[in-house]
Automatic annotation (TrEMBL):
One of its GO terms (biological process) is methylation. This is Methionine synthase. Its EC number is 2.1.1.13. Its cofactor is Zn(2+). The keyword Cell membrane does not apply. Gene3D superfamilies: 3.20.20.210. NCBIfam families: PRK09121.1. Keywords: Metal-binding, Methyltransferase, Transferase, Zinc.
Amino acid sequence: MNTLLPTSTAGSLPKPSWLAQPETLWSPWKLQGDELAEGKLDALRISLADQLHSGIDIVSDGEQTRQHFVTTFIEHLSGVDFEKRQIVKIRDRYDASVPSVVGEVARLKPVFVEDARFLRQLTSHPIKWALPGPMTMIDTLYDGHYKSREKLAWEFAKILNQEARELEAAGVDIIQFDEPAFNVFFDEVNDWGIAALERAVEGLKCETAVHICYGYGIKANTDWKKTLGTEWRQYEEVFPKLQKSAIDIISLECQNSRVPMDLIELIRGKKVMVGAIDVATNAVETAEQVADTLRKALQFVDADKLYPSTNCGMVPLSRQVASGKLAALSAGADIVRREILGK
Ligand SMILES: [Zn+2]
């Protein structure tokens, strides 16, 4: 376990083919009932073993027990009707049929706490758990009840805080909120998005992270990226306020991305999970390519605050490609670690 440049992933990892259709988002489960419950935990074990075998330091569940990073959490809440669907535009980018908020939202029981306890007893490595962020949650729903994005986000923030406190008690070291919506709705992020995120982490003693990315390598995202020009400066809109926020770690996309690396300067003082693995290509990075990205990041983040990671989740990739990328991340971090330590 490395304490200097500890490696981690942004979140999801591929599932075994006996559990869900590989290389597919929203892939339906192949098992049911007790078999499904047992299968999910077996997959979690495998995912953990893969991460440890690849030399990943801060490990996760690989999101093996959830179908989707936002929807699975919302499915556990009351106040949302999954039968009553409406077409909305997600992240201002693509139309999707989404569930409706039909009443007050509430968390009736813990969502991932049992899974986190299970992971905790399997490893002594630090563990990171991902939850959807409030703004990204509201952006994947039709709200027929609160009729206010801000109000609904605030309600979700309170619910996320309940879950986060229980995850912390279950032994989670880092709780990460996925907020790809932070790369789109800049005015809302600055008006209330960061405040909602801070409500979600209120009272936590464990470390907290926010993951802001350009999404999985799906067509809607790659098409959108083509419209963003030669320099992607989206982070510039939200970093100044995030730098002043209560969040400890910012997870962002750097590998093969057109994000100017010097934008990291805007969050000076925060720990930075630097995406050194591109999740939108099957080409496996070399250790030297990863090292190169990390070296560039080191111009703007102190070594003790640099956390080598992936650009985003890897669930749409094949297991073979994902394993190769994890190994490359680990090997690339090792090169830079040696350089820093002067070996
Ligand atoms: Zn992401």
